[in-house]
Amino acid sequence: MDAAIAAHDLVVARGGRRVLHGVSCAVPRGTVTGLLGPSGSGKTTLMRAVVGVQTVTSGRVTVLGRPAGARELRHRVGYLTQAPSVYADLTVRENARYFAALHGRGRAEADRAVADVGLAGAAGQLVGTLSGGQRSRASLACALVGDPELVILDEPTVGQDPVLRADLWARFHAMAASGTTLLVSSHVMDEAARCDRLLLIREGRLIADDTPAGVRATAGTDNLDEAFLRLIRANEEANS
Amino acid sequence: MNPRILAATTGRILRQLRHDRRTVALLLVVPTVLLTLVYYMYVDQPTPPGQPSFFDQVALIMLGFFPFIIMFLVTSIAMLRERTTGTLERLLTTPLGKLDLLFGYGIAFGLAGVLQSTVASLVAYRVFGLATAGSAWLVIMIAGINAVLAVALGLLCSAFARTEFQAVQFMPVVVLPQLLLCGLFVPRGQMAGWLQAISDVLPLSYAVEALQEVGAHPDPTGTMWRDAAVVAGAAVVALVLAAATLRRRSG
What we know:
- The complex is a heterodimer of chains A (240) and B (251).
- Chain A has eight helices and ten strands.
- In chain A, helix 2 crosses helix 3.
- The mean pLDDT of chain A is 93.
- Chain B is mainly α and 251 residues long.
- Chain B is built from ten helices and no strands.
- Chain B is globular, with a radius of gyration of 19 Å.
- The two termini of chain B are 26 Å apart.
- The chains are: A alpha/beta (240), B mainly alpha (251).
């Protein structure tokens, strides 16, 4: 089966600076793929290119067999931006119902999406009065409410309680098991181990596209943090 | 455009407004306060024989102006918030069409403008004895069209503003020249030719003329309908331009 996301030699410049230097990668369907890298490495830019809101300098991105950003993909792709993009002057439920309506879903689906992120008790609360972690979960509910085939999540677990974080990851895997593809960015290495596949990115270049076990084997260490460091060093030596 | 998405978007914008009680209160109360000021400014002025009183002339045009100024500002800020909070970027990845969003704003704030001018008209007619030859409903209709025009211009201008400071600066740029040249201060026929030419291309001049037609004639005149159509047409043009400046992809 073809990949859910295939990027080919993707080059992106933002604000006159080159942010992605020819990234090529493939994300298989029905997996949780982690996009790992430090802040400023180009994770968000790559995700924006996948959902089709990023102006691309050259190269191409194919999503579910269509060019990224194609009209018919908007029903099939869910996107969680890094900063929570929900309406602060609406309640959690009203936000979820609005995004549900955009995807042709009803109130029941909206209420379920809110419950799924653990916000059933705060459904009637204005988003502006929520904590940062709750607000980003409200935003997550709005990304998942359309039951998309491909879900792009930009740092969904930042600021979440460890128990909730484990719940969210369990939910991501349950979604993948039912055929959904997830691309999840993080800068926390302990989350890398939870992914089926890893894309390691640094300074706009991909330095690994492998399973966590594969990354460990290539680097010759069981510690993913250490493995990332060794791959960066090896990459720098190869380039110099 | 998709009717279901348009309706959901309109409802969402009205719900946001409803949660902001203070804004709703200001929207409804401020015109009344200003009309009171105008009433007492002119109450002792002698009325030239054979003409409507100063209050009648000024209040009639103010009823059209309130929704224009307020809805322009409210829309500029609302759209800028969509941009800066990332909700616009997310909306553009969903099945929502650009026109669904823009017409959603047009309908939602257009309704808010109608509500505002209804309350203001009620006060002007009932409390301050505003007299117009034509129906008050025509005044409210023209005020509603003005509100939609203001929303359309606000959506268009917000594309050129990066910050709230810039967005607010568009108010004097877009609104004040139209207020000065609309014929309220100097009748349009008595202006220098080049000023008249500018006035002729500003949509609010037509709104003011339409209101003056309602003031002077018991039945809606052809001029009034033509003027109302010009204002509505300008609103549609501004909405289409706003759609053209709204890009799904950005750098």
